[in-house]
Amino acid sequence: MGSVTILEHTTKNPIRMIGEMAGVCWGSATDNDEANITRALNCIKSNHGRTLEFPDVYMVLDGYSARVIREWYTHIGGAPTRLQSSTRYVNAKNFAYITPPSVAQNPAAKTIYEDCMEQIRSAYAKLMEAGIPKEDCALALPLGMETRIVCKHNLRNLMDMSRQRMCSRAYHEYRKLFLDVCNALRAYSPEWETLVNMLFHAKCEETKTCPEERGCGRYPKKDN
Ligand SMILES: Cc1cc2nc3c(=O)[nH]c(=O)nc-3n(C[C@H](O)[C@H](O)[C@H](O)COP(=O)(O)OP(=O)(O)OC[C@H]3O[C@@H](n4cnc5c(N)ncnc54)[C@H](O)[C@@H]3O)c2cc1C
Questions:
Q1: DSSP states of 63-117
Q2: Of 87, 41, 57, nearest to 180 (Cα)?
Q3: Average pLDDT per run of 10 along the chain, which is 224 residues long?
Q4: Distance, CA 74 to ligand 1 centroid (Å)?
Q5: Together in a domain, 72 and 32
Q6: Closest residue (by CA) to atom 3 of ligand 1?
Q7: Domain that holds residue 114
């Protein structure tokens, strides 16, 4: 069961911050909260994308699969950064793993899957006993293994990510992870709640058409 923890280094009042930054370039007074909020919302609605690059989110993602975290790393706009739990220093002999619903709901598949994980645990332990360094034993570990990262992303990067990963075509664990991010941000501060509700949604919600080859049917295909 994955969890998202928003760290205190995260910008607390991202809307006011955007308004303050935009105010500098407009030569406006930036010491008025109400004016900053109005200016920020105007910038956001006008798609002035650079303004979204000022607020940063620092978070810990814990208990999601190595597979979904590999997908998380594909979103590179704005140079996000992260550190990941080490397979060189951390002993993974009792690694926890994700069981997807398709497997969990199928008793025969569940047995095969769990046996496979047990075999990997056992092989890892035997390699360790044979004196193989952890960093090399780690090559036998599965993509379903749970991992932990700490990362930093700006608002623009997360908004772009939402457009891809709140899409029904995205992998179900990513959709769940992204929903957890949305909820953790909503709980972090009222301004984040406003931004998540305003900006984080699948790409089809912007155009009311679907660019995916095999869409879910929510909106008509883009080509039609
Ligand atoms: C349904 C689905 C299936 C997928 N299948 C695969 C797969 O089989 N294999 C695979 O490898 N990946 C796959 N992906 C991942 C996908 O190919 C992208 O890597 C991922 O969506 C991140 O790319 P992005 O353009 O959204 O990037 P982001 O990093 O989120 O960037 C957002 C925007 O920022 C700008 N930007 C970012 N980086 C640059 C840059 N370097 N230069 C200029 N502009 C930049 C671009 O305008 C870009 O659109 C899949 C994704 C989805 C949603």
A1: EEEHHHHHHHTT--TT--EEEE--TTTS--TT--B---HHHHT-HHHHHHHHHHH
A2: 57
A3: 96 97 89 95 96 98 98 97 94 95 98 98 97 97 98 98 97 98 98 98 96 92 78
A4: 6
A5: yes
A6: 170
A7: 101-140
